[in-house]
Amino acid sequence: MPNMVVEHKKNIHLILEEFGYAQAGSYYGNARPGYRLHFVTKGFGFFNGIQVPEKNFFLSFPNSPDYYYSDSDHIWEYFWISFSGPGADEVLEQAGINSVTGPILNFDKVYHFYQSVILHDFQPMVSQAYAQGCFSILMSYMTPEPDLRGGGVTAQHIKKAKCYINSYYDKKITVSDIAEFVHIDERYLYNIFKKETGVSPKEYLNRKRFSAACQLLENSELPVNEIAKSVGFSDPLYFSNFFKERSGDSPVRYRKKNSSLS
After folding, report:
1. Rounded Cα distance, 76 and 43, in Å
2. DSSP code per residue over the chain
3. How confident is the model over 122-157, as pLDDT tens digits?
4. Average pLDDT over residues 71-93
5. Given 131, 137, 159, 187, which is the most exposed site by the fewest CB atoms within 10 A?
């Protein structure tokens, strides 16, 4: 799993830390201090219980523990860029990256750049200027055209709310936290969210947690109490009751019926 370390100073607006690539790569570990953006070029795998196919990205957030691994029958390949600094959030927003996974826009260009620049010129250490240039080009490929980012203020509020939920459903977040992130009143958020999506913000959060729990039960061997923590529940019993209300089965019984590992 080769890494290309970037020289940098800590006082710049956007710090590029490292480039790297891997085949059949996996990670089960502690939180990292910055972002790490992964581009899956072949095969597929799972990121925090979510399946990530070829031509999609997955994004590790700062200070959030992650686990990801390749499907055993469709070995994935991916490359990544790790970055931090006060400008990191702005770069992601400008590129339209507002969820933990999603399609790689202009995949052919991204893949060509990966092969012709990152792999072809791979070296153990590069300058910050070189890394900034590579990163800027990749982010320009990922940036949607203006007409794909349209929508009024209400649409932007809902987009930000969904982004927050999709990114932090594994934490103990509340609707109040979501409204605070979007900078609108909690009741107003409920009204516009329900009108546009058909469900309340809380229900959207619960569906996200349930879906992630199903993925983990089906595709991992994590204990139920660890899965509960991974989808935002500190109490395993409360999680089991929540899961059974939605699936009709306890987590253990659901796994026996649906595990892809058996």
Report:
1. 4
2. --EEEE---TTSSSEEEEEEEEES--EEEPPPSSEEEEEEEESEEEETTEEEETTEEEEEPTT--EEEEE-SSS--EEEEEEEESTTHHHHHHHTT--SSEEE-TTHHHHHHHIIIIIITT--SEE-HHHHHHHHHHHHHHHSPPGGGG---HHHHHHHHHHHHHHHHTTS---HHHHHHHHTS-HHHHHHHHHHHHSS-HHHHHHHHHHHHHHHHHHH----HHHHHHHTT-S-HHHHHHHHHHHHSS-HHHHHHHH-S--
3. 777 777 777 888 888 888 888 765 443 445 678 878
4. 87
5. 187
Find the angle CA(192)-CA(156)-CA(153) to the nearest 5 degrees.
75
List pLDDT tens digits, range 19-57: 888 988 888 877 778 889 999 999 999 998 889 999 999
Q: Within its chain, how far is the Cα of 150 from the centroid?
A: 22
Is residue 11's pLDDT more than 50?
Answer: no
Q: How far apart are CA 2 and CA 181, in angstroms?
A: 37
The region, left, alpha or beta by phi > 0 then psi within -120 to 50, assigned to residue 183 is left
